[in-house]
Amino acid sequence: MRAALIPAYNEESRIAPVILKARKHVDMVIVCDDGSSDMRSEVAKDLGAVVVRHERNMGYGAALRTLFLEALRRNVDVAVTLDADGQHDPDFIPALIDPVERGEADVVIGSRFVEGGGAPGMSFLRRLALRFLNRVGRRAVGLDIRDTQSGMRAYSKRALKVAADAMEKGMAVSYGILKEIAGAGLRVREVPITVSYGGAKPSKNPVLHFSELIATLLRIILEERPLLYLGMPGAVLVIVGLFFGWWALDLYLSTKYFSVPMALISVGSSIAGFLLIITSFQLYVIAKIRNEIRRLREFLPSN
Predict the structure, then answer these.
(1) What element of type H or E holds 218?
(2) Model-level pTM?
(3) CA gap 278, 58 in Å, rounded
């Protein structure tokens, strides 16, 4: 069974054409009404979509997770996510689904930045920001893909189960899903799509959106190698603290002068260093536990 998964928040005026075009290519359209204040749920139901609703706005990531779980509950074999604002053309759905159905990929990403893809109407600043985010994102998630931020993706049933484990609730869920997919060793492929930005207004403040993505990337990077990125700086700070402490003590013993600045540097550096070291070990243990849980899931029978 094929399904189109559409997270939406206050998209009453634009969602109808998306649902109608998507229904031509799938057996079922599932919409997550993420606490909308308009009539979007009623519009979607009237057009034949299955609607699951959040009582309050919980964010893009939470809406995607609800859609993944609903698709699994309905025994969907392959699902495509797309936005409700019309920027994703549902006519690209067959191109994304085909590699999954042929067994060539577990996840197919509709990419704006591979040959044949495009993003007419995208501003220069947005394109520059995406180029930076894609370059950093590729290294953070461990996947060699050109469009880490694309919201139009096809998932096999196995990939849906893995993607539902992503923890992010906001727009940065794109990185979280890719990280889970990479950790599970799923096959990923990109196909070209065109995303139109003509006249489109961002649903979230671009600065806040960019900050959220950067914060998520930093968290992923730190979780991947906490001993390197937190433990090592922590060890350096402890050494600096001990050095200034020894220096302050030696100065006091030889001159009876107690240097407050040296003492503060010693105490501050030592505390900060120990906190970083403790945090790095905690994150290391958490990462090990998550990897073990992911490995064990491979041997558990699926429902």
Answers:
(1) helix 206-224
(2) 0.76
(3) 32
